[in-house]
Amino acid sequence: MTNRSFDFYFDFSSPYSYIAAEQIDALADKHGWRANWKPILLGVIFKATGGIPLTMAHPWKSKYSLADFERSARFGGVPFKLPAKFPQASQSAARAVLWLQQTQPSKAVPFALEVFRTLFVRDGDITDLNTLAAIAKGLDIDADAMMTAIQDGAIKQALIGNNDEAAALEVFGAPTFVLDGERFWGADRMPQLEHRLMGR
Amino acid sequence: MTNRSFDFYFDFSSPYSYIAAEQIDALADKHGWRANWKPILLGVIFKATGGIPLTMAHPWKSKYSLADFERSARFGGVPFKLPAKFPQASQSAARAVLWLQQTQPSKAVPFALEVFRTLFVRDGDITDLNTLAAIAKGLDIDADAMMTAIQDGAIKQALIGNNDEAAALEVFGAPTFVLDGERFWGADRMPQLEHRLMGR
Fold first, then answer.
1. What strands, in cross-sheet order, belong to the sheet with A34-39?
2. CB of A105 within 8 Å of any CB in chain B?
3. Under an 8 A CB cutoff, do A61 and B50 touch?
4. Which chain A residues in 10-69 lie under 8 Å from chain B, judged by CB atoms?
5. Less Cβ crowding at N or C end of chain A, within 10 Å?
6. What is the C-alpha separation between A49 and A167, in angstroms, rounded?
């Protein structure tokens, strides 16, 4: 495994985070880098910045965003279907990923990708713990242990820690990639990130 | 000249509009399309939508934007230097372009590009009518006639008309490309626009 890495801040409720998640490891691998997956809660970030979800923007922009989610997914070659319930609170899924990173790191990204696909391809409800348990079982992860971990104070604190770290780096949206303090905001900045990974 | 065209809404005070302007005609040409250059005033749009300039966003975002202007220009292969005075009111330059489109259409894009370069490469002041007159002279355009046209009621109305048209299309930022009612917002959506031009 390479020592060179960058951080990938994402929120499970963000369609552009999903689009990035489906592509970022292949992009990193290609150039000998590693992506550190860092779940955060955009809602916490927005409290600091006054930001709002795209779905709550002025109608000209929110309508555009719904169309752009689909077009950007198609452009990125990933399936996409806007969930009936959107956006969805993502803290349980985020905590599950943090627990996996601490206990079974090789399962963290596969689990995260299944959470994203459950929400943005299969119209699932990731706020329902049964949904997360089913994803865990499908990946041979102990679902009961995961359900316990989601309520664990140390895991809750780890998520707060991710958010604090993102705030210290002035991350104001998701996805954001951070390399040596340089921010790349948006799935649409992956081409510029790639240039940076290539040393350009 | 091809009959197939799309609209390119831009504001001279927008760095991403400049980055797009330097590339859009080549992109259109390559696929047998034509870009209709449509100057607008983002300030008028923002009054309708509650939008704000990136420079007035939360500091985490505004600082990012300044860095992203430079990085995106570099990525697009165009020179860029943030002007000392920024943003700058763009209505005089916009009216000059509208007058050229009505009277000497072949000079409109060369003039518009020189306005953008004056602002974003040579740190000029495009609110100064002397600056616009000098650009006109450099392109063998009658500067006195241009200065008169900038104050002309019909030209002022043409700019209002562009803004009304943009609002009717729910354009909320610049640059925005509009093809058959479909909006592509941002210089970073040119790859998706290109896909569309290729019929994908």
1. A34-39, A5-10, A176-179, A182-185
2. no
3. no
4. 49-51, 58-61, 63-64, 67-68
5. N
6. 10
* Chain A residues with beta carbon closer than 8 angstroms to that of B179: none
Q: Angle formed by the axes of helices B15-30 and B59-76, to 10°?
A: 30
pLDDT at A3 over 80: no
Question: What average pLDDT does the segment B3-21 reach?
Answer: 96
* β-bridge partners, A176: A9, A185
Helix (H, G, I), strand (E, B), or coil: what is residue A13?
coil
pLDDT at B10 over 60: yes
Tokens of A77: 């070659």
Q: What is the DSSP string of B108-169?
A: HHHHHHHHHHHHHTS---TTSHHHHHHHHHHTT--HHHHHHHHT-HHHHHHHHHHHHHHHHT
What's the rounded Cα separation, in Å, for the pair A153 and B6? 55
pLDDT digits (tens, 9 = 90+) for A52-69: 999 899 999 999 999 999
B59 chain-A contacts, CB cut-off 8 A: 170
Q: If DSSP codes are grouped into helix, strand and coil, which group holds residue B195?
A: helix
pLDDT at B169 over 80: yes
> What number of C-beta contacts closer than 8 Å exist between A and B?
59
Q: How far is it, in rounded angstroms, from Cα A162 to Cα B179? A: 41
Q: Give A-chain residues touching B182 at CB under 8 angstroms.
A: 67
Q: Are B114 and B138 in contact (CB under 8 A)?
A: yes
CB neighbours (10 Å) of residue A35?
21
Q: How far apart are CA A47 and CA A53, in angstroms?
A: 11
